[in-house]
Design goal:
This protein is α+β, with helices and mostly antiparallel strands and about 250 residues long. About 15% of the residues lie in helices and about 30% in strands. It is built from four helices and eleven strands. Strands 1, 3, 4, 7, 8 and 10 form a six-stranded mixed beta sheet that branches. A hairpin with a 2-residue loop joins strand 5 and strand 6. The chain is globular. GO terms for molecular function: phosphatidylinositol binding.
Length: about 250
């Protein structure tokens, strides 16, 4: 089971490499071919796995929009209007961050450090992580989706991440009206799947160096930003720090 889960991770990495517009592949076809003898002998394979990768979690991770149908009966107070978008990039699993793009003269790259998120029940969230995506006004992905690793720690009313996200497009190439979304997800043991708890987003005019705090909204994630409802009246925010890189 563990070997199959590691093979799944390698397939994710190869998929991400094929989606990338950069010339250097993170996970090459030659690498993928090394998995063939493992697959052929999967029931007897007992050597060390050729790549240092984490297994894809065996938990069910639902597509955007899918989980809401399962949750309304229990979480009515958290419900909201909105819909997920058809993903034009493959789904990724927790802890699949991408490296910074190569710099180009006159172009700006953005690194966002996700510091922490404030939640009244922070300590009760199991295996929390954040999915980061860049969407246009119609909710269509403009870059591959990235997931942070599971949070570093939970403390009082905060879940701490302290992780850098490299936005996979030069700022000048993002379409007008684009936004960067942050979906906070956690595992629900009763239902045995990972669920979105709330989301936040940052619009293009908010891209500037330094610290920023952004408000949290009720799920389901409204990528079109049409019917937004704050998660709570309490002052709870996602704390970020932005760094701009320009040649």
């Amino acid at each position: 089971q563990k070997t199959i889960a590691k093979i799944a991770t390698c397939l994710e990495l190869r998929s991400a490499a094929l989606q990338s517009t950069q010339s250097q592949d993170e996970f090459k076809l030659e690498d993928l071919k090394k998995l063939e003898p493992i697959l052929k002998n999967i029931l007897t394979y007992n050597k060390e796995f050729p790549f240092d990768v984490q297994p894809v979690p065996l938990r069910k991770i639902l597509a955007p929009g899918e989980e809401e149908h399962l949750e309304f009966e229990e979480d009515d107070e958290e419900g909201g209007a909105g819909a997920g978008s058809p993903n034009s990039f493959p789904a990724r699993v927790p802890g699949t961050l991408l490296p910074r793009l190569p710099s180009e003269p006159g172009m700006t790259l953005l690194t966002i450090n996700i510091e922490k998120i404030g939640l009244k029940d922070a300590g009760q969230c199991i295996d929390p992580y954040i999915t980061v995506s860049v969407k246009d006004l119609n909710g269509i992905d403009l870059t591959p989706v990235q997931d942070t690793p599971v949070a570093l720690r939970k403390e009082d009313t905060y879940v701490h991440f302290n992780v850098d996200i490299e936005i996979q497009k030069h700022i000048e190439r993002l379409t007008k009206g684009a936004a960067i979304f942050f979906e906070f997800k956690h595992y629900k043991p009763k239902k045995k799947f990972t669920s979105t708890k709330c989301f936040a987003f940052m619009e293009m005019d908010e891209i500037k160096p330094g610290a920023i705090v952004i408000e949290l909204y009720k799920k389901p994630t409204d990528f079109k930003r049409k019917k937004l409802q704050l998660l709570t009246k309490k002052p709870l925010y996602l704390h970020l720090h932005q760094t701009l890189h320009k040649e």
